[in-house]
């Protein structure tokens, strides 16, 4: 009798060991089948990210190239016509205005160059640079450069065109109002209806309470 019990225990232990081994093999097979899928998905994500970086790098390089050629063309035209051809009317005050505003465009252009230039190492793209088409400060820097160029061209034939440079600080004040002050002002105006509603609810509760009191008195 004891021998039969021992045999059954041994058989059960053997079956349990076989089941454990079988489960371990199944788990290994499942893990092996999942790994290629994860690697493939990661490869797809990385390839898409790489394509987006390359596209941004090309767009930034094109934007900076156009900015460089625009600076050359505008200033060559101004120097040839305004300084050399109309030299007699190119006064010291006009020179101060021209070189000061040109210095501003040079500074902003250099900042955009640092901000958006793609970086390569051994022919491999390391960083596409920041998006030069983004809204905000980058957009305002381009606006200042373009307004300056327009004023330079207009001032060749119309000296009063320099007054248009007041557009830049005026636009800066407008953007400061739109970005910094308008949300705060709008938040205050939006809070007023909310407070009036709460006051109305409070008033309704008070009125309902007084009506109940009057009903009890009767």
Automatic annotation (TrEMBL):
Keywords: Coiled coil, Endoplasmic reticulum, Membrane, Transmembrane, Transmembrane helix. Residues 5-32 form a coiled coil. It is found in: Endoplasmic reticulum membrane. GO terms for biological process: vacuolar protein processing. InterPro entries: SND2/TMEM208 (IPR008506). It is a multi-pass membrane protein. The keyword Membrane applies. GO terms for cellular component: endoplasmic reticulum membrane; vacuole. The chain crosses the membrane at residues 67-87, 93-115. Residues 34-44 have a biased composition (Polar residues). The keyword Membrane applies. Pfam families: TMEM208_SND2. Residues 32-51, 192-218 are annotated as: Disordered. Belongs to the TMEM208 family. This is 2640_t:CDS:1. It comes from Paraglomus brasilianum. The lineage of its organism: Eukaryota, Fungi, Fungi incertae sedis, Mucoromycota, Glomeromycotina.
């Amino acid at each position: 009798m004891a021998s039969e019990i021992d045999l059954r225990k041994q058989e059960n232990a053997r079956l349990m060991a076989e089941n454990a081994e079988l489960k371990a093999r199944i788990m290994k097979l499942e893990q092996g089948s999942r790994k290629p899928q994860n690697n493939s998905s990661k490869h797809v994500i990385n390839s898409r990210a790489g394509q987006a970086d390359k596209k941004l790098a090309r767009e930034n390089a094109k934007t900076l190239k156009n900015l460089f050629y625009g600076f050359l063309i505008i200033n060559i035209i101004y120097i040839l016509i305004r300084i050399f051809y109309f030299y007699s009317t190119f006064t010291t005050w006009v020179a101060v205005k021209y070189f000061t505003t040109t210095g501003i465009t040079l500074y902003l252009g250099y900042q955009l160059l640092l901000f958006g230039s793609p970086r390569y190492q051994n022919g491999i793209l390391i960083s596409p640079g920041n998006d030069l088409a983004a809204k905000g400060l980058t957009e305002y820097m381009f606006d200042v450069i373009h307004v300056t160029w327009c004023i330079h061209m207009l001032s060749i034939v119309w000296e009063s065109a320099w007054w248009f440079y007041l557009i830049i600080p005026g636009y800066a004040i407008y953007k400061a109002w739109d970005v910094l002050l308008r949300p705060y002002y709008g938040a205050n105006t939006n809070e007023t209806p909310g407070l009036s509603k709460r006051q109305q609810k409070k008033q309704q509760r008070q009125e309902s309470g007084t009506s109940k009191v009057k009903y009890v008195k009767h």
